[in-house]
Structures are given as C-alpha cells and as structure tokens.
UniProtKB/TrEMBL annotation:
The keyword Membrane applies. Residues 54-298 form the AB hydrolase-1 domain. Pfam families: Abhydrolase_1 (PF00561). One of its GO terms (molecular function) is hydrolase activity. The keyword Transmembrane helix applies. Keywords: Hydrolase, Membrane, Transmembrane, Transmembrane helix. It comes from Lithospermum erythrorhizon (Purple gromwell). The chain crosses the membrane at residues 362-384. This is Hydrolase. The lineage of its organism: Eukaryota, Viridiplantae, Streptophyta, Embryophyta, Tracheophyta.
C-alpha cells in the first residue's frame, strides 16, 4: 500500500514543518473524473467503503489490481482516492497538538493531489473531513470541481453534542473507551440512529452484527493513539471558517452538497443548515433520516446525492439552478459582500451580529458545563445508592443483651445485670 512524504510535495516553511510526515492512501477505479475523499475524526480511509463501491463499482485498490488487464481504463469512469489523515491508521502520528489543524491537514490533501498529479478534483469530506475539505477549498478554490460536506459543522463550539443526558453519556463513554470492545460499543451509538440499530436483519439485531464487525475492524487496525486523537480533536475545536474563506469558496462558483443525518447526535443538523446558508447560492441541503454515519446508514440515498453532484458539475449547472435553499437563506443581509461595505448602518448591524454570536457561544458553553455537572451528579447518585452501610459490631465485653417483650398491660426489659418489671398503671 502506498505512502507518500508530504514534505516532498511542499516547499518553504510547510516542507520544513512536515519533514518525515507520511500519509497512507489508496486509489480505486479509473476514469477522468477524480474524487478525493477525506474522512473524519478517528476514521480511516476504508470508512468510505460504501461510497467507493457506489462510485467505482469496486473495493479492490488499484495497487492490488493485476497488470494483465484487470484495471482497464474507462474514460467515463471515476477514480477515487481515500487516505488516512495524520494521526490515525497507517499515516504518521505527530506528537504535538500544534501539528494538527484543519489548515495543516488541508495542505496534506493538497500535497496528495500534487503527488497523484491531479490538477483538479471533486472533494468529499465527512465530519472533521468536511472541515478539512472547506479549508482546502478556501486555500485552492481553483482546484475544486465540487464539494460534498457530510455531517459537518463549522467547528469550535459547534462540535459540542446535544446537551442531553443520553448524548453526554455517549461522550463520556467515548473518552473512557480503552479496548476495541468498549470502543465498538460506543461507536455504534455515536454513528447510527437508535431505530437503525434496533432493526432486525433476519433473526439478529443490526446492533449485534455491527458490533462484531466494529470489534474486528478496530482490532485489525489498532486503537488510535492518544497523540492522534487529541491532535485531531484539537483540529476540530480550533477550526473556523472565516468570512474570507466563505468568500473564496463562493466566488469560485463550484457546486456544493451539504448532506446530513437528522438524528446525528455529534454534529447537529442546525449547524449544517447554517453552513449551507452561508454558502448560498452554491450549496444544496440534503437531509436524510440517519445518524452521524449517514453514509453507511443511508448508503443508497447518499450515493445518489453524490452522483447527482458529479453529474451536475460535469454539466456545468449554475449555482442558482443547483441550490434548493430559498433566497432569504443567503444570509438575510449577511451575504459575503458585507465585509466590503462600510456604511455606518451596516457597521452597526455587523457589530450587533458579532455581539449576538458571542452571547450565543457563551450560552452554549454555559449550558454544556451545566450538562456535564448534571451528568456527574447522576453518576454520583448511582454510586451512592449502590454503597451498602457498614455494620459495626460492638465489643463483646461492652455488649448487653436486651430483650423487650410487650404484653397487653406490661413491658418487661431484661439485661444481663438486672430484671425490672414495670406495670403500665
């Protein structure tokens, strides 16, 4: 399986900073349509399996193809490249958090495109991979043919899950998972909707089937190192799509699909909608029933949406023909051109906008802290209820045997020292 040295395709400070960083990648299928797939937090390249199969018709990497005609080139086909981000899988694992940002990881992806000789490509990103894809598109918009963002948010505080007991419990279990079995159990609740997991496949629940698959998969690749997980988490938390980034993406004019599961407990749907609105009129919003890994839960619908994006891009469909968002969703006065306006009224509105954003972030942060406190209180209450009182047996020399016998009119109290009879009247 191929590895490539990121620094070999970079120059200057980037090359120096990434010296010795290797990225593992695989390619599938053949054709003039090039698709780069970027996976999310803690995921490896094979997480794109259902989409690779749907786009290319095979899950056999090109490097495993026989040279005797088993990899015939198809002019109208699709070639896909999927890779392990730094910090996971077979790619290098830097030990410093500062070596993990969505901008740095986007430059990894650009270096990979250079290594493959791809001048332009369609870029698909899932979750953290969607954040990286956005940064990539902002850095080199002229190299993007289309953009698909699956279960993505704007990063930062938007990475916080829903503030309810169930989701916080999942997050707590995820952070504590130390074995493939523990990780597999929590991954299922993180990736899929409850309804999907409880469905029966023949005579067995889908949860049980997927659990065994996850344990095997995690065991074969190994648990992600703490350096990699902490680093990638840092990339999500520090990610921010600036107004300049949005301008850069929208001005390029390529088509964008924002695909999201309605029951995603990790990346909330409202944040994906907000991002789609910011990217209007280039963006189309696709809502599907499913969880965070909607690409697996609703494979057919997701693949249909991705193929539709490729087809529309190849046909040079205009953004106005592509979008399904109402015109008022284009920002309601906060269109990308606002940055260049300098009239006092607009300046006042922008100040109010930023103040509202700050208050919103503070509110969500405080609610998150309250949620954590309530969760901790619940766990403490459970522990206290399970504790049994300790019985203390007094010393024999000090113990007195007291028998109290009640009758209709008298109470008799006897000790080992005296016998007293007290009448009730």
């Amino acid at each position: 399986m191929p590895l490539f040295d990121v620094s070999a395709c970079q120059s200057g400070a980037d090359a120096a900073a990434n010296n010795g960083i290797n990225i593992f990648y695989t390619t599938y299928g053949h054709g003039h349509v090039k698709v780069l797939m970027i996976i999310g937090l803690a995921g490896t390249h094979d997480s794109w399996g259902p989409q690779i199969k749907g786009l290319t018709g095979t899950l056999t990497p090109n490097s495993d193809m026989l040279p005797d005609g088993g990899n015939n080139f198809e002019e109208d086909g699709v070639e896909v490249c999927a890779f392990d981000n730094r910090g996971v899988g077979q790619s290098s694992v830097p030990t410093k958090k500062s070596q993990y940002t969505t901008s740095i990881m986007a430059k990894d992806a650009i270096a990979l495109m250079d290594h493959l000789g791809w001048r332009k490509a369609h870029v698909f990103g899932h979750s953290m991979g969607g954040m990286i894809a956005c940064k990539l598109a902002a850095l080199v918009p002229d190299r993007i043919l289309s953009l698909a963002l699956l279960n993505v948010t704007g990063g930062g505080y938007e990475c916080l899950p829903k503030l309810d007991r169930v989701t916080l419990s999942i997050a707590f279990r995820f952070l504590r998972a130390k074995t493939p079995e523990q990780r597999a159990a929590v991954d299922l609740d993180t990736h899929y909707s409850k309804e999907y997991l409880e469905e029966y496949v023949e005579n067995q629940k889908r949860r049980e089937i997927l659990y065994q698959e996850y344990v095997r998969g995690i065991s074969s690749t190994g648990m992600q190192s703490s350096y990699g997980f902490d680093g990638q988490l840092n990339a999500c938390w520090t990610h921010k799509l600036t107004q300049i980034d949005i301008e850069s993406i929208c001005s390029a004019g390529f088509l964008i699909s924002v695909i999201h599961g309605r029951h995603d407990v990790i990346a909330q749907l409202c944040h994906a909608k907000r991002l789609a609105e910011k990217l209007h009129p280039c963006a189309r919003m696709v809502e599907l029933p499913g969880g965070h890994l909607v690409s697996h839960e609703r494979t057919e619908e997701v693949n249909k949406a991705l193929l539709g994006l490729l087809k529309a891009s190849e046909q040079n469909l205009s953004p106005c023909e592509w979008t399904n968002l109402p015109a008022k969703s284009a920002g309601s006065g906060w269109k990308v051109t606002w940055i260049s306006l300098s009239r006092p009224v607009l300046e006042g509105r922008s100040n109010l906008y930023f103040r509202a954003q700050i208050f919103e972030k503070l509110y969500i942060f405080l609610m998150y802290i309250v949620g954590l406190f309530l969760l901790a209180f619940d766990y403490l209450a459970i522990i206290v209820r399970r504790l049994k009182p300790v019985k203390v047996v007094p010393d024999v020399t000090e113990q007195k045997l007291v028998d109290t016998v009640s009758t209709g009119s008298s109470v008799y109290t006897m000790t080992n020292e005296q016998h007293i009879c007290m009448s009730s009247n």
